[in-house]
Amino acid sequence: MKLRLNANAIVTNNNGEFLFVELKSGPFKGGLCIPGGGVEPGELSFDTIKREVFEETGIEIDEFSPFGFCELIHKGFDSHRVVMLMEGTGGGEPRETEEGVGKWLSFEEAESHLIPFAKEAIKIWRDGKGHFKLIEECEE
What we know:
- It is a single chain.
- By secondary structure, this protein is α/β, with parallel strands linked by helices.
- The chain has one domain: Nucleoside Triphosphate Pyrophosphohydrolase (Alpha-Beta Complex), CATH 3.90.79.10.
- It is built from 3 helices and 8 strands.
- The strands form 2 sheets. A 5-stranded mixed sheet has the order 4-1-6-5-8, with helices on both faces. The chain has a 3-stranded antiparallel sheet with strand order 3-2-7.
- A hairpin with a 4-residue loop joins strand 5 and strand 6.
- The two termini are 14 Å apart.
- The relative contact order is 0.28.
């Protein structure tokens, strides 16, 4: 099983909206996820999340705070990801990228389109819990 370290962030704006990426490909194509991705060798997680949020949405965020982590096991993909969860605030107009379309949405607008990982990350964030959740998102 392949192990990967990721950093993902819940980014909110002054209107209480969340920054999401509508995914263009993969098993969750069309679903909404919080921005983030893989930590490169020698890269700090805080640098990873700044880079990933910008690459996926065009939004620049300077400060993030960690609030928890989770583990995602995809047996069908032979994959195990440990995800550091961070939070930040920002603004601006998101853009379309290679990976998806950045969007500011309320939780209620996004809820029915959230991929399981994003839904659990927001739940952990809202509940103020820093512990992980083990989620098996997909077995194909």
